[in-house]
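This follows on from our talk about sequence and fold. Go ahead and set the record down below:
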Amino acid sequence: MGRKCVTAEEGYTEPILLHPKALKSYSVSDSNRMKQLGHFFDHIGPEANVRISMVELADGVAFVTKEERAQISWTVDDGLV
């Protein structure tokens, strides 16, 4: 019934803890700032990277994600569209 789910071997032996307050943000436009929290490689190949970042937006400003890979976004305030 279906295919067997096969996953890669563990890539890390310990949990990866991200400390956002320890990292600096940088300007990506006049109104947006970004903080890169980490880049991880989920499989072999040039498109293998997973990025975790935080984006700070000014009121009324939009941030458009690229269509290169699936995106997961959430917000601490109302307004994610």
